[in-house]
């Protein structure tokens, strides 16, 4: 078979499903390439992660188009024999980084997040590190809530033993932090840690962030906290979280929910806070122009 693949979102972030599909078809002896409109294909796979990405309306030369990913719907999943394939990183020219999930699902069920609906409200182990890592220098974990998994200790030890630089791309749930978990995180090679404070009325998150700040021997700019805005908070609550996080040694990072309909003040807050040159040069938002 001749297979065409399409990354509808673009190539800014490698699509894991397409990399696994490529491996699966190559193992079957099929030819796989980025789809070109003028060439005929037995099947074309179109993957889209983000709902705000405009769909690809190219007329590909095939009678079999398979669309998948959260950008299309939350029900489509890779077949088990495809899901278990080692990703073909070569299609993106990746040589030193591994991407994958050790766990799926999250017990939080946050209303702004699709994970609970798509993967379930329980964090479960779905793979070992060797399923997508073979000695690469960097590991980008896509897990939604690794610390909620009953097998967190075993999986963290795999990351430690790899001696690779680990990026917990979706952040770690500070509300589940314990001394034991913090000790294992310290043993990982981590350039930056990411946490989140989504609900301004959730004081437990702030208290846990404060309690464990000194547990991680990283400078302020290496301990980031996502601050959700334009969802369930006022501008005053957003600004207060930014100030309070900075005061206890974290680097806040403003995330705007549905940025297309966010008020101007929220977008200004994001630019002021996330541009660290501006943030350090003018520490008071009221004086930012």
How far is the first residue's CA from the last residue's CA?
58 Å
User: Ranges with pLDDT <50 over ≥5 residues?
Assistant: none
Number of strands: 12
Task: Give the CA-based shape.
Answer: globular
Strand residue content: 15-25%
Topology diagram in text:
Elements (H helix, E strand, L loop, with lengths): L1 E6 L8 H12 L3 E4 L8 E5 L17 E4 L11 H4 L13 E4 L2 E2 L10 H5 L4 E2 L12 E4 L10 H11 L2 E4 L10 H9 L5 E5 L5 H10 L10 E7 L5 H13 L3 E6 L7 H11 L1 H6 L8
Parallel strand pairs: 1-2, 1-3, 3-4, 5-8, 8-9, 10-11, 11-12
Antiparallel strand pairs: 6-7
Helix pairs in contact: 4-5
Task: Give your account of this protein's structure.
The protein has 289 residues and is of the alpha/beta class. It has a domain at 1-88. 28% of the residues lie in helices and 18% in strands. It is built from 9 helices and 12 strands. A 4-stranded parallel sheet has the order 2-1-3-4, with helices on one face. The protein has a 3-stranded parallel sheet with strand order 5-8-9, with no helix packed on it. The chain has a 3-stranded parallel sheet with strand order 10-11-12. Helix 1 (16-27) links the parallel strand 1 and strand 2 (31-34). Helix 4 packs parallel to helix 5. The mean pLDDT is 95.
What key attributes describe this structure?
three-stranded parallel β-sheet, 12 strands, 28% helix, four-stranded parallel β-sheet, single chain, alpha/beta, 289 residues, 18% strand
Summarize the structure.
With 289 residues, the protein is an alpha/beta fold. The chain has helices at 16-27, 80-83, 115-119, 152-162, 179-187, 203-212, 235-247, 264-274, 276-281; strands at residues 2-7, 31-34, 43-47, 65-68, 97-100, 103-104, 124-125, 138-141, 165-168, 193-197, 223-229, 251-256.
